[in-house]
Design a protein that fits this description.
153 residues, alpha+beta, Rossmann fold, four-stranded antiparallel sheet, three-stranded parallel sheet, 4 helices, 11 strands
Length: 153
């Protein structure tokens, strides 16, 4: 398999108000690895350490996400099957997020130690085969917060 490697270095310019001062900061080197079909299959730092790896089912990317609440609740609200992987020793992801998603019947938690490709592939196959029937996510949070604040003014 022929793998294409692209190296991207970015420079950021910071301008301060009306001053003619510009500072440049070098972003870290990121290596993007592509498969023969042109899919990005991995992002690695300058030392070859994985930043993010991508999995495809046919031509479609499959989301295997860290266990953060924002991402997992967006997937829950959009009724998408998903697997989430809480970071080790991350209290919020291991307890709060897991509890919140359980209330919606959403997602499948995979322990970090179980992220071998064969285990993930099996979990993905099972998840996409089951019907999604998560509880609806409330969408009026901003309106409720405004009403509570209005009472204080």
């Amino acid at each position: 398999m022929r793998i294409l490697i692209k190296i991207m270095q970015a420079m950021a310019a910071i301008a301060l108000a009306s001053m003619a001062f510009t500072a440049q900061a070098t972003q870290p080197t990121t290596y993007y690895i592509y498969d023969e079909s042109g899919h990005v299959i991995g992002e690695y730092d300058a030392n070859g350490n994985p930043i993010q790896e991508h999995v495809y089912l046919g031509d479609r990317p499959v989301a295997v996400v860290q266990g953060g609440l924002t991402t997992t609740m967006e997937l829950t609200a959009s009724q998408r099957p998903f697997i989430y992987v809480p970071l080790r020793h991350h209290f919020e992801q291991n307890f709060h997020v897991r509890h919140r998603l359980a209330q919606y019947g959403a997602g499948r938690c995979v322990d970090y130690d179980q992220t071998r490709p064969d285990a993930l592939a099996a979990a993905i196959a099972e998840e996409i085969a089951r019907p999604v029937s998560y509880r609806p996510v409330e969408t009026d949070g901003a309106k409720r917060a405004a009403a509570l604040l209005a009472e204080l003014i």
